[in-house]
Amino acid sequence: MIFRRTERGKAPVEPVTLKILVAGGFGVGKTTLVGAVSEIKPLRTEETLSEAGRPVDDTRGVTGKHTTTVAMDFGRITLREDLVLYLFGTPGQDRFWFLWDELATGALGAVVLADTRRLEDCFAAVDYFERRSIPFVVGVNCFEGASRYPADTVRQALDLDSEVPVVLCDARDRESVKEVLIDVVEHARAAVAAAREPATT
Question: In angstroms, how far is the first alpha carbon of the chain from the final one?
């Protein structure tokens, strides 16, 4: 259990802990995002890409990638003294999707990372969270050399509801990632508040 003091002499504060998933296609930057922002050494379950996996792993656009997540990434970040996020990065390949249900249990919300060069790779993650009514934010990871598009253009391409936030980010940059995570928490809080509102007739 994590306890933090607000000021010398005051009772320790037990922070609220929230679970956030980081999902998206193969090679989109999920492991990088978790590592960029985690205040602890991230737990990673990466294996070297093998010749046996070449027929099933689509490496187009990620030719420099030599490892892949086979279970999850795990990290932690304290946003405030009373608010701690636990980050769980999901595996990107189809054959590991059976792990998603376990990882999604108890999640407040999710980040769906997108690469505009391979936007179709995040369709499955978008569908997954929509079907389970898990609030999510789409983070467009701005890779060097990739075309930049306005958020509304990405929203239309992914056929997202108007209330789903779409933000541009750099998965390598701690401050950029923190902003995305804050957006997830705020979006999830708004979704919970809306669900609690009585239906109008």
Answer: 45
9's torsion region: left (phi>0), alpha (psi -120 to 50) or beta? left
Instruction: Give the side-chain half-sphere CA count within 13 A for 153.
Output: 8
pTM of the model: 0.79
| C-alpha closest to that of 133 among 166, 157, 155, 110 | 110
SS3 81: coil
**Burial code of 145-162, b = ≥16 C-beta within 10 A, e = fewer?**
eeeebeeeebbeebebee
194: tokens are 């809306």
Expressed in percent and rounded to 5, the helix, strand and coil fractions of the chain are 35, 25, 40
Helix or strand run (H / E) with residue 154: helix 151-158
Cβ-based neighbour number of residue 98 at 10 Å: 9
φ, ψ (nearest 5 deg) of residue 91: -70, 150
- Counting as low any pLDDT under 50, the low residues of the chain are 1, 3, 49-50, 52-54, 65-66, 69-70
